[in-house]
């Protein structure tokens, strides 16, 4: 609560989902918003109505959404000296236009915290918004741009993490770095307490490459599994009904006795707890899998995933089997055959569980609320 006015703490989120961006940014903001609401905060979202947006999902979960117009397809305005951010095209408009539209949507509400989770926004956008909110929190994974914020969260585990943002932040900025701050849904913390390190034989497999899976790595993995001389009790396959590859994947699943297709799930937690190992992409799902001790074969699907996944591989927390541009059916096949024969699977699984407890949301909120 805001002690001066006895009014609920106002938290605004600026984040987007789209077919290009995916759903991960909105999902982790929703996770944070739910727990903030439980503690009495008034949470609201500002999101652009891209194709593949999650406006209705946010509303369905009981939050107010202030929608920005769909992609204008305008060229992105240069940020500094003709340079643009690496993900500038994710915004759908010029950053100044986005800032002006966001200010208009916020109106007179003046949030106590403005939480920004967007790779296409940086110090310039944040500086424009500073007069219209009390504090700004940035959620980032890339460390590829400057920020003007009071609190920065990067939940990744990367070599030299402590100096990753050196020179990119103001002196006042508090940094929350590492998986102890990973924004996981509450059930992960609960299931972490009962999860057991995996043991051979690994009979249950989870396949998940993100809801949309533009590259159809799901289909490639299912094709590889048909060539593996291993009998699984179950293969759980997760892909969104919005995926362009959904019907193809459904056909593959329907023609296999031990496979089951899942779409648009609120959480993967119980499927992860059930699985002996998984095959998937190298994004924010990493922390969910680590929390529940799930050994995983990872394919990176974006350039920004490579540094994190390289570090996780070197630390023995995942097996990074390649990049989407180079991985082939035989690579997945041989990796699956290898993992089911690993003798120290228990040690690998236990190592994962020791890295991420699933309490990140509460750890973050403990930093947010005392200074409100």
What number of domains?
2
Poorly predicted spans: none
Series of secondary-structure elements, N-terminal to C-terminal: EHEHEHEHEEEHEHEHEHEHEHEHHH
Mean of residue pLDDT values: 93
CATH class assignment of the largest domain: Alpha Beta
Number of helices: 13
- Measured as a percent range, the helix fraction is 25-40%
CATH topology of the largest domain: Rossmann fold
Strand order of the largest sheet: 3-2-1-4-5-6-7
Radius of gyration: 21 Å
First-to-last CA distance: 8 Å
What class, by secondary structure content?
alpha/beta
E-strand count: 13
Tell me what portion of residues adopts beta-strand conformation: 15-25%
As an assembly, this protein is single chain
Shape: globular
Question: Which characteristics define this entry?
Answer:
Rossmann fold, 2 domains, alpha/beta, globular, 32% helix, seven-stranded parallel beta sheet, six-stranded parallel beta sheet, 13 helices, 372 residues, single chain
Task: Characterise the protein shown here.
The structure is a single chain. The protein is an alpha/beta fold and about 375 residues long. The protein has two domains: about 10-185 and about 360-370, Rossmann fold (3-Layer(aba) Sandwich), CATH 3.40.50; about 190-355, Glycogen Phosphorylase B (Rossmann fold). Helices cover about 30% and strands about 15% of the residues. It has helices at about 25-40, 55-60, 95-105, 125-130, 185-190, 215-225, 245-255, 270-275, 285-290, 305-315, 330-340, 345-355, 360-370; strands at about 10-15, 40-50, 65-70, 115, 135-140, 150-155, 175, 205-210, 235-240, 260, 275-280, 295-300, 320-325. It has a seven-stranded parallel sheet with strand order 3-2-1-4-5-6-7, sandwiched between helices. A six-stranded parallel sheet has the order 10-9-8-11-12-13, with helices on both faces. Strand 9, helix 7 (about 245-255) and strand 10 form a beta-alpha-beta unit. The longest helix is centred in the first third of the chain and has 15 residues, at about 25-40. The radius of gyration is 21 Å and the shape is globular. The mean pLDDT is about 95.
